[in-house]
Design a protein that fits this description.
Elements (H helix, E strand, L loop, with lengths): L4 H11 L6 H15 L4 E5 L2 E9 L9 E6 L2 E6 L3 E2 L5 H13 L21 E8 L4 E4 L6 E6 L10 E12 L2 E12 L12 E7 L15 H7 L2 E6 L15 H10 L3 H14 L4 H11 L4 H19 L15 H16 L3 H14 L7 H9 L7
Parallel strand pairs: 8-10
Antiparallel strand pairs: 1-2, 1-5, 2-3, 3-4, 6-7, 6-9, 7-8, 9-10, 11-12
Helix pairs in contact: 1-3, 2-3, 5-6, 6-7, 7-8, 7-9, 8-9, 9-10, 10-11
């Protein structure tokens, strides 16, 4: 139980009873930590678990007490008043007294939430929402509960993937759940994400007899499209977190593109990841993460594109036989994912798989604003990507 203000003031008086200025009182605090605190000890600093190795004072009154801490094998020094020890511990009382002496709030307000929805004795499955350099924002499947994973080692993961984690430690800071552990597997399972399908809006009927097919002879890919006859056209719902509906000039995707083109790859990626953390159905964020990764890391780009395609196909359903014309701008994110995915397959030498993707694009958008028919011709000819 937290000590009252009077109890903390009495503890401060007890610690500093024979000290008559700030320097002497700081030495007194340092001495009581040395005498009464068993180190190393576990604590938190700004929500991160640390092991406190030492608490010291070097005579710098402005700096005050410092703490030497270890986290993930690294040693660093922080201001001692930033330490948070377990409640009802002597160390916690002494830090609260020290904070009282400094004239700041003795107990940082940390909202607690239960953590028993994660069983630390076995591997946990988590839905990836966004990925940073050393942190992955996740959601527990079937629960409206998010957490931050601090993974050990490095493993490339795409938003929307489901990862299996071998947990090592969990903690909370200001009501948010943190987990440290090793990613041991990843998979894609769209139904497990619990997403609402993107809405399809019917906009009319498309008649191949009214479409201009160019000069004869008719290209081979067009024959089954024409034979299928009149089909309905749809526009797919577009989810764009961060867009201001009252300001048509706001577009986070364009902001990310501008940053990427200026060389600020980190912040360009951050914008897209933040959008997916808000809603995994933002297909344009998946598409542009793929576009940004494609030149340097096609193995990762294909996973971004694939996730966008799978979420889009989930919304279309298995029996969809309509069109998604490029002229309806909200269809473009899904079509971009298909194009990027097809190019990756071609680049990997998977020509037959690439052929299927380019054919799918032409079936959805016979007007072919993306040039899929030219890519289809090349892969059917067996040309390698580098050619």
């Amino acid at each position: 139980m937290a000590k009252s203000k009077d109890e903390l003031n009495n503890l401060v008086d007890e610690i500093t009873i024979d000290a008559y200025n700030d320097d002497e009182q700081l030495w007194a605090f340092r001495q009581v930590f040395e005498d009464d605190l068993a180190l190393p000890a576990e604590a938190f600093v700004v929500g991160e678990p640390v092991t406190v190795l030492a608490i010291g004072y070097d005579g710098n009154e402005r700096q005050g007490l410092t703490a030497t801490c270890r986290r993930d094998g690294s040693i660093y020094t922080v201001a001692a008043h930033n330490l948070i020890f377990p409640e009802n511990s002597k160390a916690g009382d002494y830090i609260a007294a020290y904070r009282t002496w400094l004239g700041i709030e003795p107990y940082p307000h940390v909202k607690k939430r239960p953590t028993d929805d994660l069983d630390m004795s076995r591997a946990a499955e988590l839905i990836v929402l966004s990925v940073r350099t050393n942190a992955i924002s996740c959601r527990i499947p079937g629960k409206n509960r998010s957490l931050t994973l601090r993974p050990s080692g490095y493993r490339e993961i795409a938003p929307g993937e489901i990862i299996t984690v071998s947990p090592r430690k969990k903690w909370q800071y200001k009501g948010h759940l943190y987990l440290a552990g090793e990613i041991i597997a990843s998979r894609t399972d769209i139904p497990t994400l619990g997403l609402a399908p993107l809405t399809l809006h019917k906009i009319g009927m498309w008649d191949p007899g009214e479409h201009y097919w160019g000069e004869p002879p008719l290209e081979l890919w067009a024959r089954p499209v024409i034979k299928q006859g009149i089909r309905p056209e749809y526009e797919m719902e577009q989810v764009l977190p961060g867009e201001d509906p009252d300001n048509p000039d706001t577009d986070p995707i364009l902001d990310a593109i501008d940053l990427e083109q200026s060389g600020d790859h980190k912040n360009a990626r951050r914008i897209l990841m933040d959008m997916l953390a808000s809603d995994l159905r933002c297909l344009d964020a998946h598409a542009h993460l793929g576009n940004f990764a494609f030149p340097r890391n096609p193995d990762m780009a294909v996973r971004y594109y694939d996730m966008g395609i799978k979420i889009g196909e989930f919304s279309l359903g298995p029996d969809f036989d309509g069109l998604l014309p490029w002229g309806c701008v909200h269809n473009r994110p899904f079509l971009r994912c298909l194009q990027g995915y097809g190019l990756c397959l071609w680049r990997f030498g998977r020509l037959r798989d690439a052929e299927k993707i380019f054919t799918r694009m032409l079936w959805l958008n016979p007007t072919d604003n993306q040039g899929a028919r030219f890519n289809l011709f090349e892969v059917k000819e067996g040309k390698a990507w580098h050619e």
